[in-house]
Amino acid sequence: MRNKKAVAILVSGGGSNMVALVDSMLNDPDHPGRPCLVLSNNADAGGLKRAAERGVATAVVDHRPFGSDRAAFEAELVKPILEAGADVVCLAGFMRVLTAGFVSQFEGRMLNIHPSLLPKYKGLHTHARALEAGDARHGCTVHEVTPLLDDGPILGQAEVPVLEGDTPDDLAARVLEQEHRLYPAVLARYLRGERSVLHLG
Ligand code: GRF
User: Fold this and answer.
1) Which of 82, 89, 100, 195 has the highest CB neighbour count under 10 A?
2) Based on the domain organization, do 119 and 73 belong to the same domain?
3) What is the pTM of this model?
């Protein structure tokens, strides 16, 4: 398929969601997207090696030298994304909060996956919070990124049951399996202009 949209993926760690996204694009000749860059704030991110093994260009912009100057970090972070000609940016286990200034450059073309059924449990420790609340259902959400953290229009959700005796790690593992189904499905729909919410059981 010609005229594929270029997708940049930002990671901070192992990048299991990035692998799911990259493989979904590389394994389907009719996929509307192609991976153009995997970018990390962490030179040791396992995702960088996994991307390179798949022939995807990688880059690192370490946030630490910039200290608390988020704008200076983001002014560097945006460069490889622009150089790669990204049409869409996917945050996938990217653990830096991005400022409104950065996000506004990609308004309407930046996605994120969050490990809860938003709007519940924005922020961190989502699995422990769902367990503490005694929720029977939990899951993950893919949403458009807007300046407010974990707050943009929802594009897809996948649910899992909470089981007796679950630890946060048990729940995280069950949710992560669904993330790897949900994010690739939502990205393909999104690149085809579909904006209705996808619900996976
Ligand atoms: C996962 O919990 C995911 O929900 C969140 O970051 C964590 C690591 O994801 N976005 P990955 O394995 O690095 O994709």
Assistant:
1) 89
2) no
3) 0.95
